[in-house]
Here is the input.
Amino acid sequence: MSWGVENQRRREGVMELMEISARIMKNNPNHVNEVRKSATGCWMEQMYGMLRCDFCDLSPDCPIREEQEWQEYLTKNNIVIEKNS
Here is the structure.
């Protein structure tokens, strides 16, 4: 896995995350132990307070990616989910 450091935009994104991480840890060294789970289930949103799907390729079970793939599958196969209230 390369983290995309050969791509200028991805490299800037990784550097931005490193800066955010340093600030968070400086403000609260226990952040990792105290952080609450994000509503979306995204680890990046949980840890950094932001979604950056454009360069996040670290988690194969990403809930946002899974939902996107599921919606694409439904659309491709003309499947409509009806919710009974």
Summary: Residues 79 and 85 are 19 Å apart (CA to CA). Helices lie at 8-27, 31-34, 43-48, 63-76. Residues 8-27 form the longest helix (20 residues).
